[in-house]
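Here is the promised in-class demo. Please do not try to memorize the tokens; focus on the logic of going from shape to residues.
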């Protein structure tokens, strides 16, 4: 009896070994988010550049925050995409404060574009940050993720809340095929849709709608333990204009996105390191390409790697009414200017400003 069991065990073992050899060696990621050094780093111990209102793309539109669509943003190195979700006749639409101001299209189309890029870039980990403006349920978002095929590559944490130190490495996320991390500010439900993760119990944020160059590192929003959770800095400078409406200060974007100097991204990171003892995990910026890649240089320095892109990132597009011709705004390679022009309020911008005033009740005019 004993000898029979031994023979059975030997046969089973032989089968398992043969199957493993036939399958080949386990593939391990050797480059993660562009750098081999990041493969062994925890997701919670990496600094990422994020596009504030990533869907809000446009020229001479006071409600826009980016010059380029998410395909270009991702190609240039953006690894967090932030968005506002609104209810447009029952559809989850990506709009800026109101769909009458700037309608960036449906979440379905947006996620389809993201899926295409991620399929073509299998060694990249990307994060989404959803501002659930109109209170959709997690299940409603989950249905759209499933339709886009993104549920299959989404990371589901082991618990609803994880400290920064307990996130998996980028390498393991890539190896496991769970490379999309989605956070949502309200109505996340770990039980029904575990891959849509509650933001504020996992990430704290600094203040937004900043209109001077003093970017501090004080906790502005959180429901978790800020001593152990990841954190995000909102580093985009606004200006108060017509009717008190806050719009991006594009004229200062080169310096706001800079590596060093007053009001720069690099300076805020240094402020946060001095205050918290660790680098921010996410850095949300407007018009990320202003500064010629400086935002990515700041992230690389924080991550201890060298920023040396093989191709230049996109060039800033003009925001002045005098140079917003179709030739300068119809393709990602439009404007070649490397400096930030002053903002001239065109007729369309005035119209947008009036719409913003009408859409935002009783002076609630800050556009986030």
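The designed amino acids, position by position:
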């Amino acid at each position: 009896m004993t000898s029979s069991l031994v023979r059975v065990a030997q046969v089973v073992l032989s089968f398992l070994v043969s199957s493993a050899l036939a399958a080949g060696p386990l593939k391990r990621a050797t480059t993660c988010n562009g750098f081999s050094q990041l493969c062994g780093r925890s997701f919670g111990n990496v600094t990422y550049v994020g596009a504030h209102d990533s869907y809000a793309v446009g020229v001479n539109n006071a409600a826009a925050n980016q010059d380029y669509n998410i395909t270009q943003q991702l190609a240039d190195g953006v690894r967090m995409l932030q968005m506002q979700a609104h209810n447009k006749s029952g559809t989850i639409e990506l709009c800026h404060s109101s769909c009458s101001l700037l309608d960036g299209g449906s979440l379905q189309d947006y996620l389809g574009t993201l899926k295409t890029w991620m399929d073509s870039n299998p060694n990249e980990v990307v994060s989404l940050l959803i501002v659930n403006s109109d209170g959709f349920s997690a299940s409603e978002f989950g249905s759209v993720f499933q339709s886009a095929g993104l549920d299959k590559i989404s990371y589901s944490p082991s618990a609803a809340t994880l400290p920064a130190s307990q996130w998996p490495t980028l390498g393991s996320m890539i190896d496991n095929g769970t490379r999309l991390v989605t956070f949502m500010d309200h109505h996340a439900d770990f039980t029904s849709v575990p891959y849509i993760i509650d933001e504020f119990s996992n990430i704290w944020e600094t203040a937004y709608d900043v209109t001077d160059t003093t970017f501090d590192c004080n906790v502005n929003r959180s429901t978790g333990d800020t001593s152990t959770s990841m954190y995000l800095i909102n580093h985009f400078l606004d200006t108060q204009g017509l009717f008190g409406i806050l719009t991006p200060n594009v004229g200062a974007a080169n310096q706001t996105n800079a590596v060093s100097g007053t009001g720069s991204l690099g300076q805020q990171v240094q402020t946060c390191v001095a205050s918290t003892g660790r680098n921010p995990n996410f850095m949300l910026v407007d018009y990320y390409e202003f500064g010629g890649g400086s935002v990515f240089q700041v992230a690389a320095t924080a991550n201890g790697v060298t920023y040396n892109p093989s191709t230049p990132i996109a060039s800033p597009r003009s925001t002045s009414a005098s140079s917003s011709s179709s030739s300068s705004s119809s393709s990602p390679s439009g404007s070649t200017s490397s400096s930030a022009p002053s903002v001239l309020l065109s007729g369309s911008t005035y119209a947008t400003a009036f719409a913003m005033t009408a859409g935002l009740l009783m002076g609630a005019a800050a556009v986030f």
